[in-house]
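Reviewers of the previous submission asked for a worked example of the structure-prediction workflow described in the proposal, so we include one complete record here. The input consisted solely of the amino acid sequence. No template or homolog information was supplied to the procedure at any stage.
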Amino acid sequence: MKRKKFSWLFVFAIIGVLIFTTACNSSSSSGGDGDDEIVIGVLLSQTGALEAYGLQTERGFEIGLDYATDGTREVAGKKIKVIYEDTETLPEVAVQKATKLLDEDEVDFLVGSSSSGDTLAVLPLVEEYETIMVVEPAVADSITGSEFNKYIFRTARNSSQDAVAGASAIAGPGVKIATLAPDYSFGWDGVKAFKDAAEELGAEIVHEEYADPQATDFTSNIQKIIDSDPEYLFVIWSGQNSPWQQIADMKLQERGIKISTGAPDIAALSIMEPLIGMEGFSVYYYELPDNEINDYLIEEHKERYDGDVPDLFTAGGMSAAIAIVEALKQSDGDTDADTLIEIMEGMSFETPKGTMTFREEDHQALQTLYAIRLEKKEGVPYPVPVLIRELSPEETAPPIMNQ
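From that input alone, the workflow returned the following structure tokens.
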């Protein structure tokens, strides 16, 4: 009986091996198509307070893929597939959408997102799934600082780069400055970085005011700033709800308080008429960079989108796409994360803003920013950021904060 039992077990074992082998061969065969495709998942705000930024990123990413692949959407013989997911500008939704992209769609890269809060919520997932995430346009310092992991690379500038650019425009010995920012990670990190940079130049931060990012009435916030009696108000803001109109209505400049900020997107520039003459900085305005890639972006964007020009974060979306394609060219299409990390650390690549370089220590892209003045330009229905001077990648390099 024992010998007979052994014989049946042997038969079952052989059948099992054959089934397993067939399944593996079938899986390998069906996976061959997948091996010929690179899948990129893009998280962005298609709804919510940062919807405009999501649209800018998406348009730039689309143009960037075509530019970097000469219109083929192919690299190293592999087709590129892009899946866009709306985070709704809500961290919990961002986590759900990122999990879907990583688990179900098995993306080779993540890109995004429009919100620093959304992005910070997703960072642990890319480490868990060992997948490269190119962060664009979220700026919170903590993304490449305290919350950094090795799978994160950022083409967006961070808050400290903004801070260096902003402080260079107004800070000096004895200058009194108040700040206004939204009450979440983007605002907190931005103010901390600006304060550090301004105080290093000898300025005094006399008041920090944080406002509800969903608010439509900033009267009480602005009054507190007035009461602190600063020489300058430095504003850090993003999104549809902005304080510009009430800053103008409450006549801060007539009270001797000069306004400074990063020049926002075109929609927000349209309500900054009272700030003509203001000096600050810009992440990107389409007339500021002078290079062939930016020329391509402007021309292609106008052709695709009814004559519209690229906006604040369009160049960033394009830069993220170029970075991914450049890394894949160097890896010959290999999407292994460790292989890509080795390539991308220290990698330089050309963008609409000139040369960017992923700093080896924290994977933050060093990049050009722009000192600007808002001026009235004939035929343009909003104040235009006019170049004072370029701020080089070396000049705006932020401190390394992930160690």
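The longest strand covers residues 78-86. We consider this example representative of the routine output the project will generate in years two and three.
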